[in-house]
Every structure is written in structure tokens, then in C-alpha cells.
Amino acid sequence: MYGIRYGWSGFALLTAILSFATVAGRIIFTWLTPAGMRRINLGRLEKYELGLIGALLCAVGVLILLLEK
User: Fold this and answer.
1) pLDDT tens per residue across span 31-49
2) What residue ranges do the domains of the chain occupy?
């Protein structure tokens, strides 16, 4: 809403720039993630993957219960 003080053309330009930057950022970070994951050796964790995911989900549930207002 900051661009509205420059009229509708300013608002449209700001919206277009923000939309482009958001999509470009997501594409770049999505492209970088597999490149970074190849550098980390996660072979040892594959054996315990299901247990780790279950423990993390339980921890998130407990945190939600504890931090709920």
C-alpha cells in the first residue's frame, strides 16, 4: 500500500517489482537447495528417517501445546 501515494501507476509498478522479486527469489533458493544438499552427506540419517520425522512432529506438537495462548 506504500506505492498508492504515487497513484495507481506507482502502485502497479511497485506490485510488479515485488511480485517479480518474490518469484525470482523462490526460484533461486529452490535451485540452490539441491546443490547444497549434495554437499551434505545424509546417508547415515536415511536409516533413521522415519523415526526422526516422527520425533520432530511430536516435538512440534508439544511446542504448540506449551506455547498456545
Assistant:
1) 988 888 778 877 778 888 9
2) 2-67
